[in-house]
Design goal:
The complex is a heterodimer of chains A (about 700) and B (about 160).
Chain A lengths: L6 H11 L1 H7 L23 E3 L5 E5 L8 H13 L6 E5 L17 H28 L6 E4 L2 E4 L4 E3 H9 L27 H4 L16 E7 L6 E6 L1 H5 L3 E6 L3 E6 L2 H9 L2 E5 L8 H11 L5 E6 L2 H6 L3 E9 L11 E7 L2 E6 L4 H12 L6 E5 L13 H13 L3 E4 L2 H6 L7 E9 L5 E11 L2 H5 L10 E9 L11 H20 L4 H8 L4 H14 L9 E10 L2 E11 L5 E11 L6 H20 L5 E2 L2 E2 L17 E6 L17 H13 L10 H4 L3
Parallel strand pairs in A: 2-3, 7-17, 15-16, 19-20, 23-26
Antiparallel strand pairs in A: 1-2, 4-5, 5-6, 7-10, 8-11, 9-10, 12-20, 13-18, 14-15, 14-17, 18-19, 21-22, 22-23, 24-25
Helix pairs in contact in A: 1-2, 3-4, 4-5, 11-12, 15-19
Chain B lengths: L1 E7 L2 E7 L5 H9 L17 E4 L2 E4 L12 E3 L11 H8 L9 H14 L5 H7 L9 H25 L1
Parallel strand pairs in B: 1-5
Antiparallel strand pairs in B: 1-2, 3-4, 3-5
Helix pairs in contact in B: 2-5
Classes of the chains: A alpha+beta (about 700), B alpha+beta (about 160).
Bound molecules: FE2/S2 (inorganic) cluster (FES) (2 copies).
Chain lengths: ~700, ~160
């Protein structure tokens, strides 16, 4: 029984159970007084909104917070339509549920645009019901009432708070269609609102996955087969078990888990393991072989992905031909918080605390492993110490579920940084043969992009179709198995194809002796939105105005995730080949603006993420293993390298777009185009190496 | 295992761990202060930064046995109610994104200001060499400058009031 049991329920329970006994049990006491006071009930017309009789508005967030600000932006959308008082809104992170909230997967820069309509509807529905409840209680005409900052106000001036109205509104039927607000009447949306979870992130109280502490829990660290797809052949756990604090050692087949009373004891126990691996079919894989395979593949035409006209014919007869090869390495996500998960498996149920971008994926995986129905699997979503696509996978959830089941206790599995680096789902390495043809006036007539890459066509090919009006183009692909697991990496296909396309179009512009900005602008006839972003970026950056000696300027524009964005980079190159970025100017059209504060932060964040992938890092493979292991050999840009980033948000009536990823793809090409402008050297292989640019 | 006594945020704790256990894991697993984060375990990232006798150190590489008689301050003990000027500036500039690196960033910034109340950009570059994978660097820099300014203003105000 709980405190919201009302008199009617009480009577039902009493008559069912036989009055004497139940009455005896429920004899009025101080504690149970509320049971007899006809308690007021919460108003909760849908999965996202709850208003209690004290007026607290609780909004559920069903997407995962990983720094992109969804715990703030999604409730803002609900609160706007609800006409709530933002300062009184409480946020609740939703547990995984198969259907209640729609998809809880957090990726593709889809949280705001994918929830936009549904959340507005949720807020508007509640608002309409509160209005009706007020009108009824005043016996007034519905049209004489308006909702305002947590109150319904009558034209006479009298008002009732949402808390006062909650009980009555809860008894009304939920309307099936409601009027949404006009964008011009937005009061919360469009304002730079501080993120709701900032206060807890400055005093250590924020709860990330690795911060979960459950009574009686143990800590685990897993030695996985260093070779992709390899398995445990045999192992000796005696020494590991002798390490103080180690409780158990568990064979997971793809690795061996040490379970201990602390994380460090688990790490130490792991070092004492001796394991023989069956390294499997990829034991001899190496980066050189992968490159050779791609190189050989692009000698032939692959499967055609997209085309218009007769690109091969037009190229053959072009007045000017340009050919180039662009190479992109594998890249790791390296979220700041390494993968981890806490699980408590019991015979008939399982509770999970996971920093996951895929709560429903976690739930499904656990149900599959344990053979339990979904409703016996509770998944609590913690804060994520970075996601970037890595946490769409559920491998670390599987780890925790398996280990907890094996030792029959709550367990937190904590990956070491080295595990995280070497067992990622990497951004694919690709090899791109580019061919472009210009007619005698310097207009592009042919575009041929042949790409070779690993395992997944979507991840390799996505974002390769040029936005430019080129009468004949063709994209074809060779998808090869390499053994290297690949996955969604912040901005996915466009993360590499944006660089390839926007670098090569720059090569064509220079080959036609035209200004790279003007050249693009004239070819963007099919994409007015992208053209506008390009123009705004160029104008704000002062494109065409003279720069100090040694500084070069480059531009790039990429459409994706429902948004259009262009960036201008200003860079110089030192004699030793190091690149200094002086300024990045970005112009973005993401449709209606939810929170300019997070839009700016996300563009800046994407620039830094792109800096690491284009200027610093690559994942290489030797003996079937990832060579890099920690931040000394997969290094991150630091504060001293951080350029000034100017973000210009273009006022727009276009459909709402995403913002977590679009800032990334234009960065590398803008940078490399600027390097070309400064030095005459074209970068066609990432990451940029100082030796590529050193003065001879 | 051996027994060690250390003072964390003004409170004495006795823990039973191996002498080589890094302070980071003592804080997180033995004492239950999870605000200090594990990022790399090798001293590269700074997520685990705490103060030992007022100095910023990386707790993942400091063994518990080297800490007897030392005073440790973690993010939880930096100030009551997040009132430290650095925390206030962090809130005002909405610095954190995912937030995972921010305990370390804040502890490093607080140590910087106590050593150099008016740091220039070079000082910030040198002391704030911590990784933020979310790329909050520009806001960090801004917030450090603002915190330093606010501290100065407060001091002036206090002097003026006397
Ligand atoms: S965890 Fe200590 S420096 Fe990275
Ligand atoms: S805020 Fe995410 S790593 Fe710094």
């Amino acid at each position: 029984m709980n405190a919201t049991l009302n008199r009617r329920d009480f009577i039902k329970v009493s008559s069912l159970a036989g009055s004497g006994l139940v009455l005896g049990f429920y004899l009025p006491s101080k504690e149970n007084e509320s049971l007899f006071a006809e308690p007021l009930t919460d108003f909760s017309p849908n999965a996202f909104v709850k208003i209690d009789p004290t007026g607290t508005v609780t909004i559920s967030v069903a997407k995962s917070e990983m720094g992109q600000g969804v715990r703030t932006s999604l409730p803002m959308i609900v609160a706007e339509e609800l006409e709530a008082d933002w300062s009184k809104v409480k946020i609740e992170q939703a547990d995984a549920h198969p259907t209640k909230y729609g998809s809880q997967g957090t990726g593709g820069s889809f949280s705001v645009r994918g929830s936009w309509q549904m959340l507005r509807q949720a807020g508007a529905t509640a608002r309409e019901m509160l209005l009706t409840a007020a009108a009824q209680s005043w016996n007034a005409d519905r049209s004489s009432c308006r909702a305002e900052k947590g109150f319904v106000v009558h034209s006479s001036g009298k008002k009732l708070s949402y808390g006062d109205l909650a009980d009555a509104a809860g008894k009304l039927p939920v309307p099936t269609s409601v009027q949404l607000k006009d964008n011009k009447d937005f009061k919360i949306l469009g304002k730079a609102i501080p993120k709701v979870d900032t206060p807890e992130k400055v005093n250590g109280s924020a709860m990330f996955g690795s911060d979960v502490r459950v009574k009686g829990m143990l800590f685990s660290s897993i030695e996985k087969c260093p070779v992709f797809g390899g398995k445990v052949k045999s192992f000796d756990a005696a020494k590991a078990k002798a390490v103080s604090g180690v409780k158990d050692v568990v064979n997971l087949e793809n690795g061996v888990a040490v379970v201990a009373t602390s994380t460090y004891a688990a790490f130490k126990g792991r070092e004492a393991l001796s394991i023989t691996w069956d390294e499997g079919q990829w034991a001899n894989q190496k980066s050189e072989s992968i490159k050779k395979m791609f190189e050989d593949a692009v000698k032939q035409r692959g499967s055609v992905e997209d085309y218009d006209g007769d690109a091969e014919g037009a190229f053959a007869s072009a007045a000017t031909k340009v050919e180039a090869v662009y190479e992109v390495p594998f890249a790791a996500h390296a979220t700041m918080e390494p993968m981890n998960c806490t699980a408590h498996v019991q015979s008939d149920r399982c509770e999970i605390w996971a920093p996951t971008q895929s709560p429903q994926g976690a739930q499904n995986e656990a149900a599959r492993i344990l053979g339990l129905p979904l409703d016996k699997i509770t998944v609590h979503v913690t804060l994520l110490g970075g996601g970037f696509g890595r946490r769409l996978q559920s491998d670390y959830v599987q780890d925790a579920v398996k280990v907890s089941k094996a030792v029959n206790a709550p367990v937190q599995v904590m990956w070491k940084r080295e595990d995280d680096m070497q067992h990622d789902w990497y951004r694919p390495a690709t090899y791109n043969l580019m061919r472009g043809g210009l007619d005698k006036n310097g207009s592009p007539v042919a575009w041929l992009h042949r790409v070779a890459g690993p395992s997944s066509r979507g991840l390799v090919v996505g974002g390769s179709t040029p936005q430019y009006k080129i009468p004949n183009f063709m994209i074809d692909s060779h998808i090869k198995e390499t053994g290297v697991p690949i996955g969604a990496w912040r901005s996915v296909g466009p993360s590499q194809n944006g660089w390839v396309v926007e670098s090569f179009i720059d090569e064509l512009a220079h080959a036609s002796k035209k200004d790279p900005y003007e050249f693009r602008r004239q070819l963007l006839t099919r994409s007015p939105r992208l053209k506008r972003a390009l123009e705004v970026a160029a104008e704000k950056a002062g494109w065409g105005k003279p720069l100090p000696k040694g500084i070069g300027r480059g531009i790039a524009a990429v459409e994706g995730f429902g948004s259009s964005i262009a960036q201008v980079a200003e860079v110089s190159v030192q004699p030793d080949g190091t690149v200094k970025i002086h300024r990045i100017v970005a112009a973005v059209d993401c449709g209606p603006v939810v929170n300019p504060n997070t839009i700016e932060a996300q563009i800046e964040s994407a620039v830094v993420y792109a800096m690491s992938a284009s200027m610093k890092d690559e994942i290489t493979i030797a003996r079937g293993r990832v060579v890099q292991s920690n931040f000394h050999d997969y290094s991150m840009p630091m504060i001293n390298e951080m350029p000034k980033v100017e973000v210009h948000i273009i006022p727009s009536t276009e459909a709402i777009g995403g913002i977590g990823e679009p800032g990334l793809p234009p960065f590398a090409p803008a940078l490399c185009n600027a390097i070309f402008a400064a030095t005459g050297k074209r970068i066609r292989r990432l990451p940029i190496r100082p030796e590529d640019l050193k003065k001879a | 295992m051996s027994s060690f006594t250390l003072t964390v945020n003004g409170k004495k704790h006795t823990v039973d761990v191996d002498p080589d256990t890094p302070l980071l894991w003592v804080l997180r697993d033995s004492i239950g202060l999870t605000g200090t984060k594990y990022g790399c375990g090798q001293g590269y990232c700074g997520s685990c930064t705490v103060h030992v006798d007022g100095e910023a150190i990386r707790s993942c590489t400091m063994a518990i046995e080297s800490l007897s008689d030392k005073k440790v301050t973690t993010i939880e003990g930096l100030s009551p109610n997040s009132s430290h000027p650095i925390q206030q500036a962090w809130i005002a500039h909405d610095v954190p994104q995912c937030g995972y690196c921010q305990s370390g960033q804040i502890m490093a910034a607080a140590a910087l200001l106590s050593e150099k109340p008016d740091p220039n950009d070079e000082d910030i570059n040198a002391s704030m060499n911590l990784i933020c994978r979310c790329g909050t660097y520009n806001r960090i820099r801004e917030a450090v400058h603002v915190a330093s300014e606010n501290m100065r203003k407060k001091e002036l105000g206090q002097k003026g009031g006397k």
